[in-house]
Amino acid sequence: MSRRDLVIGADRSLCAGTTRRSFLTWTALVGALAMTPELSSATAHAQPQRGTPADYPFRLGVASGDPLPDSVVLWTRLAVDPLAPVGGMRPGVVPVRWEIAEDERFGRAVSQGIELASDADGWSVHVDVRGLAPARGYFYRFMVGPHVSTVGRTRTAPAPGSPLASLSFAWASCQKWEDGFYGAYADLAASDPDVVFFLGDYIYEYAIEGTGARASQPRPESAGRETLALNDYRDRYALYKSDPDLASAHAAAPWITTFDDHEVDNNWAGAISQDAGTAAPGDPAGDPRLFLLRRADAFKAWWENTPVRMAQRPTGPDLTAYRRFSFGDLVDFSVLDTRQYRSDQANGDGEHAQNAETADPSRTITGAAQEKWILDGFGSGATWKFLAHQTVISDLARISDGERKVGMDPWSGYEASRHRILDGARDRGITLASIVGDIHRTIVSELRRDYQDDSAPVVGVEIASTSIASGKDGADVDTAGADIAAASPHVKFGNVRRGYLRATLTPTEWRSEVRVLDAISIPGAPVRTAATVTVPEGRPEIGLA
What are phi and psi of 299, to 5 degrees? Predict the structure, then answer.
């Protein structure tokens, strides 16, 4: 029986694909749930329970994501003991009821249904709720027997082409659990954005050492080894999602999420693992077939733990992650995948001077199909065109041993790919906006076609968010940042504190606040604005305050 056989709308009608057998099964499930006092119509205003009985299944919270004008994805994952194998769940199938309403007390219900959670999908639930009104806020919750989840807030996108005066959004990345507390997320949740972008490194695959800010916190048995198989990846997501500040941020707004490298393996490229280039002959680490098996497990765990649609459900080691989101006539966000289709890093990875290999036009960071899709998106009628993706387009150059060197993993190691995208933006007369993560520091820079020619035209602005936790406390400045500033005149601001970015976008201006914490090694540290960045529409000019 498929999940869609059990989804019902506000009129309690079954969706397409229902068979007689599934109808009878659905009827039995609804009858069983209706007989549970907590789920009967007499308790329509039940609030999430404050206690945590041993069999409470919503310890990993709730989330929503990928908002469209008429639809949003609702998510939860059942776990009575998140740090135990398989979340402490017994084998079998659990009916999970969901509701979405216009008010927090669910007096104005819009839709409801039943999904089946099972061990086959890590006890996750994905509900693609259709028939919603555009640009509308909603509340949602899940129920299993007498247990009621936290109430989440979500919002649909405005109708295509409709006038939109402003959009508030945030973006974040890189949240290595053992490096510190997620205080930035408490601030993000309180700011009540319309949408949140997460741009990669939701988990880290490394073995977790018993030191650091969270040394005394419990963790699953698998935390002591690198994640290589499906259940290890599932355990790692459960550990991260047990953080209350992360859970509150997920419940506060819809998220649009993509992955980077650490959801699978550090600096992987296509079918090539991090260790492939250094593996001895016969070493399994160098076998792309084995890496693709690992990638398949990692992708499945990512899908299970992310509020995305069935279209993003992986088939083995393949997953369609690039997709576009429009918010009225104001902005298009093209969410990219710069891992799955890329060529191997040039010059053996690391930092090197750019050379014939980095300039090779046959090398790509996006793959040909995604590159065409990006360029085609530049032709839309939206006022702003954003790329929301993993790592910096800009050169972050440093002088080392008398040479100008840049990273081989970012776009600076894929010069021809970068030229084609930036030339496409310039030729279409748009001011390109790029939001990224990955580098564990806030960087505000100009997007230039040629970073070694000061007269090269500026075609856009890029803002990289610092990490939520990766890199520990950080500082306002560090040696690497000073070196980048000295060799990269297109970089206009840098900060190495932990935090995130929040922004307000209007038809005339993109305004972003760099929100940072002076410490993440202690819980509850205050959050402050380190800088405010403004970019006027139609002009790639950076204002700082």
Answer: -65, -40
- Domain CATH for 421: 3.60.21.70
- Measured CA to CA, the distance from residue 278 to residue 280 in angstroms comes to 6
Total structural domains within the chain:
2
Q: Which domain holds residue 247?
A: 168-544
pTM confidence score: 0.91
CA 121, distance to chain mean position in Å, is: 19
Question: pLDDT (tens digit, 9 = 90+) per residue, 140-193?
Answer: 999 999 999 999 999 999 999 999 999 999 999 999 999 999 999 999 999 999
For the chain, how many residues are written?
545
* Range with the poorest average pLDDT among 173-182, 286-295, 319-328, 527-536: 286-295
Dihedral sign of CA atoms 77, 82, 86, 92 in order:
negative
* CB atoms near residue 468 (< 10 Å): 34
Cβ atoms 413, 358 nearer than 8 A: yes
pLDDT for 283 beyond 70: yes
Distance, C-alpha 131 to centroid of its chain: 25
Q: Which residue has the tokens 């969410």?
A: 335
Read off the tokens for 192: 């009540």
Considering the domain architecture, whether residues 255 and 297 belong to the same structural domain is answered as yes
Please give the backbone phi and psi of residue 259, each rounded to the nearest 5 degrees, phi first: -105, 160
Residue 283 counted as domain residue: yes
Ranges 18-22, 93-97, 456-460: which has the least confidence: 18-22
CA gyration radius for the chain? 23
Tell me how far apart the alpha carbons of residues 134 and 203 are, in angstroms, rounded to a whole number.
32
Q: Which spans in 352-400 are helix H? A: 356-359, 368-377
Distance CA 532, CA 212 (A): 31
Q: Say yes or no: 148 and 86 in one domain.
A: yes
Whole-angstrom distance, CA of residue 29 vs CA of residue 176: 40
Dihedral sign from CA coordinates of 7, 11, 13, 16: negative
**Signed CA dihedral, 396, 430, 420, 172: sign only:** positive
Each residue's pLDDT tens digit, 415-445: 999 999 999 999 999 999 999 999 999 999 9
498/540 same-domain check: yes
Cα separation of 413 and 201, whole Å?
A: 20
Q: How far apart are CA 112 and CA 127, in angstroms?
A: 10
